[in-house]
């Protein structure tokens, strides 16, 4: 959820970053115009291409749109970017992911590190998309997957192999062996 929630391994919620209700309405107003595959994540579950009837009772954490038409995707990105309380990113070149402003994976990791009196320099972050770039840039050792978007590769300290070639495992093995 791009850092929208942080949980313990025991199932305890530590942090939730919810989108403001008036911003939810602005996002929902675009569903019909965008006419694309969309997914929604709230405190009550994940929804695909459907908005629950009781959506006002949910805390919305993330909205995602997969928009194949580049012109329409650019228009949608401009619309959502103009809403100052939203954070936009993507997990593929054709989608837009929307969270509350300031919500991203780096922020979630920082939250955990601060609570444990650790530093981001002690973190190895691995990713492939723009929703990973802030944590990769800030980590002590940022790794881009071989299949990563070009900008992610540019920001990473190391580029490993593709996800389907065990790239994350290779990066971890290299880190543990001190080969960096």
Describe what you observe in this structure:
- By secondary structure, the protein is an alpha+beta fold.
- It has seven helices and ten strands.
- It has helices at residues 21-28, 31-34, 70-81, 105-115, 133-138, 150-155, 167-177, and strands at residues 5-7, 13-16, 37-42, 45-48, 60-66, 86-89, 95-100, 124-127, 141-144, 158-159.
- Strands 4-3-5-7-6 form a five-stranded antiparallel β-sheet, covered by helices on one side.
- The mean pLDDT is 96.
Q: How are the secondary structure elements laid out?
A:
Blueprint: E1 5-7, E2 13-16, H1 21-28, H2 31-34, E3 37-42, E4 45-48, E5 60-66, H3 70-81, E6 86-89, E7 95-100, H4 105-115, E8 124-127, H5 133-138, E9 141-144, H6 150-155, E10 158-159, H7 167-177
Parallel strand pairs: 8-9, 9-10
Antiparallel strand pairs: 1-2, 3-4, 3-5, 5-7, 6-7
Summed up:
By secondary structure, the chain is an alpha+beta fold. The protein is 32% helix and 24% strand.
Mean pLDDT: 96
Q: Order of strands in the sheet with the most strands?
A: 4-3-5-7-6
Distance between the termini: 30 Å
Low-confidence stretches: none
Quaternary state of the chains: single chain
Portion in beta strands: 15-25%
What is the C-alpha radius of gyration, as a whole number of Å? 17 Å
The general outline is globular
What is the number of E strands? 10
Helical residue percent band: 25-40%
Largest sheet: 5 strands, antiparallel
User: What is the helix/strand order?
Assistant: EEHHEEEHEEHEHEHEH
Work out the helix count: 7
Alpha-beta content class? alpha+beta
């Amino acid at each position: 959820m791009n850092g929208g929630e942080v949980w313990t391994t025991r199932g305890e919620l530590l942090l939730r970053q919810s989108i403001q209700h008036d911003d939810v309405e602005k996002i929902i107003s675009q569903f019909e115009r965008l006419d694309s595959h969309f997914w929604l994540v709230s405190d009550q579950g994940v929804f695909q291409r459907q908005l629950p009837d009781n959506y006002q009772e949910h805390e919305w954490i993330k909205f995602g749109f997969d928009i194949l038409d580049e012109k329409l995707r650019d228009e949608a990105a401009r619309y959502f970017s103009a809403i100052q309380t939203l954070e936009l990113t993507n997990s593929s070149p054709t989608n837009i992911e929307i969270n509350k402003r300031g919500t991203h994976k780096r922020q979630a990791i920082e939250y955990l590190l601060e609570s444990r009196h650790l530093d981001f320099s002690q973190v190895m972050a691995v990713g492939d998309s723009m929703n990973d770039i802030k944590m990769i840039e800030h980590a002590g050792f940022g790794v881009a997957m071989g299949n990563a978007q070009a900008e992610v590769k540019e920001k990473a300290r190391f580029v490993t192999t593709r996800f389907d070639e065990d790239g994350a495992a290779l990066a971890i093995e290299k880190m543990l062996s001190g080969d960096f």
